[in-house]
Amino acid sequence: MRFASLFAWLILCFFVAGMGATASIDAAAFYAQLNQPAWAPPAGAFGPVWTTLYTLMAFAMWQVWLTPASPLRKAAAIVFVVQLFFNGLWSWLFFHWHLGAWTFADSALMWALILVCVVLFWRLKRSAGLLMLPYLAWVTLATALSWYVWQHNPTLL
User: FRET pair for 4, CA 20 to 30 Å: which of 83, 99, 148, 150?
Assistant: First the structure.
C-alpha cells in the first residue's frame, strides 16, 4: 500500500505536468520572441528541470502522506494540491493566453503556497521539506522571470 500511494502522488504530479505541457505546445516559438534577461534559463532547461521537480514533489508529498494522520498532515496535503493547481494554471496563463500580469500573480501565489508546503512538510518530516526546497528555488527564479518578461514585453503579454 505504501508504494501505491507513491504511485498516486507521481500520477497526480505528472498529470499536472501534462496539463501544463498541453498549454505549452508552441512554447519554444513564443519564448524565443520574448525580451529576456541575461539570467533567463535556456528553453531546453525547462523540461529536465520540471521533470526532476515534479518527481521530488511527489516523493515529498508521499513522505508526508506516510506520517500519522493529523490535522497538520491534512493541511499539508490540501496546500500541496492547491499549489499544484496554480502550477498547472501558470502554463496556460503564460504560453496559451499570454496574460503577463496574471502569470506573475499566479507565480507569486504559487511561491507563497510552496513556502507554506515547505514549512508544513518540514514539521511533519524534515526530509520532505528538504525535497521541496529545489522547487521553491526554481519558482523563485520563475517568479522573478515572470515579472521581468511581463514588464519588458508589453506587446506580447
Answer: 83
Distances from the Cα of 131 to the Cαs of 65, 89, 113, 127, in angstroms? 14, 22, 15, 6
Q: Do the beta carbons of residue 106 and residue 84 sit within 8 Å?
A: no
Contact yes or no for 54/138 (Cβ under 8 A): no
Place of cell 499570454: 98
Nine-digit cell string for 72: 497538520
- Contact residues for 136 (Cβ-Cβ < 8 A; gap 6+): 111, 114, 115, 118
E-state strands within 66-126: none
- pLDDT by residue (tens digit) across 98-150? 999 999 999 999 999 999 999 999 999 999 999 999 999 999 999 999 999 99
